[in-house]
Design a protein that fits this description.
The complex is a heterotrimer of chains A (124), B (170) and C (104). Chain B has 170 residues and is an all-alpha fold. Helix content of chain B is 76%, strand content 0%. Chain C is an all-alpha fold. Chain C has a single domain, classed as Helix Hairpins. The N and C termini of chain C lie far apart (63 Å). The chains are: A mainly alpha (124), B mainly alpha (170), C mainly alpha (104). Chains B and C meet through helix 1, helix 2, helix 3, helix 4 and helix 5 of B and helix 1, helix 2 and helix 3 of C.
Chain lengths: 124, 170, 104
């Protein structure tokens, strides 16, 4: 068996896992729909708010602070994807790559410090 | 019909059909779910093309980070915006016709393409190969990418942060 | 054991690109337009990775290009959504056709 076939056969189990993961909630929800009684009354369709009377819509406007955290998440997850190949090939690359990666990380630390100074990381 | 064909057909069917679903669905959240399915099946395509690392990056960046940031964009802006999300018919018609013409011309180009296959083993130590190439030939683009990320972070904070309103609250 | 030909991947990328282009040109919600542009970028990435395996000179370079393209696309979508939030704050809408202040 060639190494390409071996590589591809490794991913069959991933595919099976993915399909099972997608099918499981679909089948569970569909079976639940088949089995449960269907008696809609108006009170059942209101939003559950721990016993209080619900008011407003369930989809309220989010605060911009949530976006700030999403933004930091995107930027630093992109940083992470550059760290992986560097870490895997580190032994063949040597000191030069270490310096390069330090410059890279320092660049993003500057961004983090900027965000900190602008009080993006504070919730209140 | 090898297994590779079957997997390719399955993945491209999922990708194209959920892309179409993204176009025709009414609710914005359904669009996002369809888009995430498209991204994950594209990462499967990358695995077929022996680009393991790019597939992992696709799952991490696109169906993780970009989808999250798009959902936040929808949540922050789509406040009771239930107006019809469609352009006028004449524009859709024109765009559709021109896209069909474009795809026909591209199809003609693709079908005449003849490239003899050369054997490569990109799937062996894929991440290590990418690391070596990235830190020998592509050092300058790598550093510029870090600069772009820094500018994007700072710029997005400056644009999105509302200093006028929050100045009074502190 | 026969491989999937290059043309099949190119056709898939073409289909995804056309879907993205249709969405980008006809939708009114600006977030949807950004999403469609991401789809078009993905189609371009499929082409890059496909040519890195089946191209004239197959090498790792195509994958590196795709990697950089993904990184830039992530930064671009972050800034795009930030601009959208600022525009929404000023005009209280995300409809593309109403962002026309430069016109007059």
């Amino acid at each position: 068996m060639s190494s390409l076939n071996w590589y591809q056969n490794n991913y069959v189990i991933v595919l099976v896992f993915l399909i099972l993961g997608i099918l499981l909630p679909i089948v569970a929800l569909f079976l639940g729909k088949l089995l449960r009684p269907h008696k809609p009354i108006h009170a059942k369709y209101t939003t559950y708010e721990s016993g209080n009377e619900p008011f407003g819509d369930a989809r309220v406007q989010f605060n911009v602070r949530y976006y700030m955290f999403a933004l930091m998440f995107v930027i630093f997850s992109v940083e992470t994807i550059f760290l992986y190949p560097w870490a895997v090939a580190y032994k063949k690359l040597g000191v030069f790559a270490l310096v390069e990666m330090l410059v890279f990380v320092v660049m993003l630390v500057i961004g983090l410090v900027y965000a900190w100074k602008k009080k993006v990381l504070r919730w209140t | 019909m090898s297994g590779e064909y079957i997997v390719f057909l399955f993945l491209s069917l999922v990708a194209v059909s959920s892309g179409t679903l993204m176009l025709i669905s009414k609710k914005v959240m359904h669009m996002m779910v369809a888009l995430i399915f498209t991204f994950i099946s594209i990462s499967g395509i990358y695995i077929l093309l022996s680009a393991e690392f790019i597939a992992a990056v696709q799952v991490m960046v696109y169906s993780g980070a970009v989808a999250i940031i798009m959902i936040f964009g929808i949540m922050l802006t789509n406040h009771h915006d239930s107006s019809r999300n469609k352009a006028p018919l004449i524009r859709r018609l024109l765009v559709g016709i021109s896209i069909i013409l474009f795809s026909i011309s591209m199809y003609v180009g693709i079908s005449h393409l003849k490239i003899s296959l050369a054997e490569v083993a990109l799937h062996e130590n894929n991440t290590e190969k990418i690391g070596i190439a990235l830190f020998s030939d592509y050092v300058i683009p790598f550093e510029i990418a870090s600069l772009v990320l820094l500018v994007a972070l700072v710029g997005a904070i400056v644009i999105a942060k509302n200093d006028n309103v929050e100045g009074g609250n502190q | 054991m026969e491989n999937v030909p290059l043309q099949a991947y190119l056709l898939l990328a073409l289909a995804l690109f056309c879907i993205g282009m249709y969405g980008a040109l006809t939708k009114k919600n600006s977030v949807i337009v950004l999403i469609s542009i991401e789809l078009m970028l993905n189609a371009a990435n499929i082409n890059l990775v496909a040519f890195s395996k089946y191209g004239v000179l197959p090498s790792i370079n195509g994958q590196i290009f795709a990697l950089f393209s993904i990184v830039i696309a992530a930064a671009q979508s972050a800034v795009g959504i930030a601009i959208l939030i600022a525009a929404y704050r000023n005009k209280n809408t995300v409809n593309m056709n109403l962002f026309n202040k430069l016109k007059n």
